[in-house]
Amino acid sequence: MSYYNSNSSMTLYLGVILGKGLFLDQNHIIIYYSFVMTKLAVIKTGGKQYIVKEGDTLVIEKLGLDVGTHVDFNEVLFTDHDGDVKVGMPLLDSVVVGAKVVGQGRLKKINVVKFKRKVRYRRNIGHRQAYSKVLIQTIS
Questions:
Q1: pTM over 0.85
Q2: What is the Cα–Cα distance from 107 to 124, expressed in whole angstroms?
Q3: Best label site of 27, 34, 92, 140, fewest CB within 10 Å?
Q4: Left, alpha or beta for 119 (phi > 0: left; psi -120 to 50: alpha)?
């Protein structure tokens, strides 16, 4: 992270961001910083894990639901609410993430090409993955 000083045409290095919440300043001192605290959760759906917070829009594997319906994700692995961290082993029982389906569709086409040389074997198959777009409303 650097800032440009227009007066002296030189770059002033204030420090380096090491990761989420850690900052290394000029004197090599690690400082913990935090911004506005939000509710975070890690949910599992469609064989994948997603880090979500309230108000996020998420593209996940297709759910068999209509647009506008409410869905609850019960497989919650981790929550963080203002520093109150809960880690499930493997799941948290009392936590539910509520969401609303806001859209459905199919992703861009990918081409699956199979080729074997010297035997005249060529296959070209396309695939479009179906998805659902959900809006995370509550983490409770």
A1: no
A2: 18
A3: 27
A4: alpha
